[in-house]
């Protein structure tokens, strides 16, 4: 790919190319408002050799763009502390809102190549990274993102000359790092690595720019961006194809109507077990913190099923410096304007920490499905996207525990009436709760589909019978205790 690259002659002389570049630049600026109206988010990834002019190219590309329409991502800044998160985390976190543009000064390709060259990847890890990148790019495309990928290519000679020129001036020598020099010293190894990774993760395709001919780089980039945006605006919203599920479910769960909701526990046993389990979980929390094991605990369930009380008993023994609880409501405008998983990627815990979600990413296949907040294709596609998301977390080393807190319709009605008639509890009941109750059959079907399609070996669902809230709390704590034990056992 890079070894054999040769820019085709476009037949333009220097003055003609300069004039044409200005026209493409004007066209790009004129497309910003239509882009916003079409709600198309754009990611422009600029990869390339160190000292090849990537920064100068990005600076020229954004020079005439209203800063309200774009932002710039720097890989060096983004990677600070990112060894405590999944590989794709800093890139998912940075994705722009619909109608805006993100310019990336290096990204997932450079990170993968640098880590590969440094010997951080065995065969299994390399395959996992390739899969992460492929899924990331595909999910972006399927959710309406336009991704344009550039690689600024240059010869070893050009790279060395640029570095020597920068190093000769005390005002610019800071721009050449030891890593940049190392890249030039090992040019052939990096070239092989770039070629291999670009071929393995080509996904949306690469545009190679000729860094040996600086006069063509920005011209080619402006032309490609303007042409690509024009086509995207003319074509309208990308209609992602449906795709088959790629994960096999774990052992089948009992259907909701077969769950024994009569199970209960007496007060004496409850108090004794609660104290014992909380003590064990507290001790295990210290171990997973020391071993840097991330934990993600998800709570879904019927309104008034007892999620809040269950979460409080789980959170009580945890050190507050090592966990966060996220109550998830309907998405805010800036969240709806991004990939539906973005607001959860930004909340995943760093390694060694615990994140407890009160409602989760499963809202898309329940409330959004039933209320028509997304298309049928979007929520059907979402099962697989969720499984991919959870597999990414699991491969990273996260313990994933998912609870469905289950009650019957009569129990829910009794609890609704209790909340309605008790002044200090009235804040817990809303008109929306009553309206959702009228759609119980639709929700029951949606929940059954969710449990069937997303209970996997790496992230199984646990149905928690919660007519007796005390029983539900003990069952959930036991599951958490056992999962943490398995994860923290000594090698």
Plain-language structure description:
There is one protein chain. By secondary structure, the chain is an alpha/beta fold. Helix content is 51%, strand content 12%. The strands form 2 sheets. Strands 2-3-1-4-5 form a 5-stranded parallel sheet, with helices on both faces. Helix 1 (14-30) runs parallel beside helix 11, helix 6 (108-117) packs across helix 10 and helix 7 runs antiparallel to helix 17. The model has no long low-confidence stretch (mean pLDDT 94).
Query: How many domains in all?
Result: 2
Q: Which architecture of the largest domain would the CATH scheme give at its second level?
A: 3-Layer(aba) Sandwich
How many strands in all?
10
What is the CATH third-level topology name of the largest domain?
Answer: Rossmann fold
How large is the share of residues in beta strands?
5-15%
Provide the spatial order of strands within the biggest beta sheet.
2-3-1-4-5
**Broad shape:** elongated
Report the sheet with the most strands, covering strand number, pairing sense and barrel closure. 5 strands, parallel
How far apart the termini lie comes to 43 Å
Mean pLDDT, all residues: 94
Low-confidence stretches: none
Rounded radius of gyration (Å): 26 Å
- Kindly state the percentage of residues in helix: 40-55%
CATH class identity of the largest domain? Alpha Beta
Q: Structural class of the helices, strands and pairings?
A: alpha/beta
């Amino acid at each position: 790919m890079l070894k054999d690259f040769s820019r085709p002659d476009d037949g333009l002389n220097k003055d003609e190319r300069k004039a044409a570049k200005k026209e493409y630049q004007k066209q790009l600026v004129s497309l910003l408002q239509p882009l916003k109206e079409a709600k198309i988010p754009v990611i422009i990834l600029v990869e390339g050799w160190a000292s090849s002019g990537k920064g100068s190219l990005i600076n020229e590309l954004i020079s005439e763009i209203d800063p309200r329409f774009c932002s710039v991502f720097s890989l060096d800044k983004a990677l600070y502390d990112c060894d405590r998160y999944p590989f794709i985390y800093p890139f998912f976190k940075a994705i722009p809102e619909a109608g805006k543009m993100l310019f990336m000064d290096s990204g997932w390709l450079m990170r993968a190549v640098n880590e590969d060259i440094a010997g951080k990847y065995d065969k299994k890890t390399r395959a996992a990274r390739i899969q992460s990148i492929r899924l990331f790019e595909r999910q972006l495309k399927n959710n309406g993102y336009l991704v344009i990928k550039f690689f600024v290519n240059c010869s070893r000679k050009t790279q060395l000359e640029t570095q020597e020129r920068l190093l000769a001036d005390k005002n610019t020598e800071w721009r050449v790092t030891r890593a940049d020099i190392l890249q030039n010293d090992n040019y052939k190894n990096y070239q092989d690595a770039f070629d291999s990774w670009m071929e393995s993760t080509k996904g949306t395709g690469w545009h190679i720019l000729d860094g040996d001919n600086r006069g063509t780089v920005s011209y080619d980039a402006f032309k490609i961006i303007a042409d690509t945006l024009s086509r995207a605006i003319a074509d309208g919203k990308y209609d992602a194809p449906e795709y088959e599920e790629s994960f096999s479910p774990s052992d089948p769960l009992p259907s909701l109507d077969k769950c024994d909701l009569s199970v209960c526990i007496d007060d004496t046993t409850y108090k004794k077990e609660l104290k014992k389990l909380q003590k064990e979980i507290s001790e295990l929390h210290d171990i997973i913190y020391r071993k840097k094991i991330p934990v993600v605990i998800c709570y879904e369930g019927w309104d008034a099923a007892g999620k809040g009380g269950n979460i409080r008993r789980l959170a009580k023994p945890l050190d507050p410096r090592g966990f966060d609880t996220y109550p998830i409501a309907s998405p805010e405008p800036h969240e709806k304007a991004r990939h539906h998983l973005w607001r959860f990627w930004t909340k995943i815990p760093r390694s060694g920490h615990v994140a407890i979600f009160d409602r989760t990413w499963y809202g898309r296949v329940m409330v959004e499905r039933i209320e028509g907040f997304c298309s049928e294709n979007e929520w059907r596609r979402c099962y697989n996207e969720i499984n991919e998301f959870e597999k990414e977390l699991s491969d990273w080393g996260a313990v994933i525990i998912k609870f469905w807190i289950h009650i019957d319709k009569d129990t829910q009605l009794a609890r609704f009436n209790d909340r309605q008639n008790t002044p200090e509890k009235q804040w817990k009941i809303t008109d929306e709760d009553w309206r959702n109750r009228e759609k119980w059959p639709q929700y029951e079907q949606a929940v059954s589909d969710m449990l069937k399609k997303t209970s996997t070996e790496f992230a199984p669902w646990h149905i928690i019978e919660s007519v007796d809230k005390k029983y539900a709390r003990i069952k959930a704590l036991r599951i958490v205790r056992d999962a943490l034990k398995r994860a923290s056992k000594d090698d």
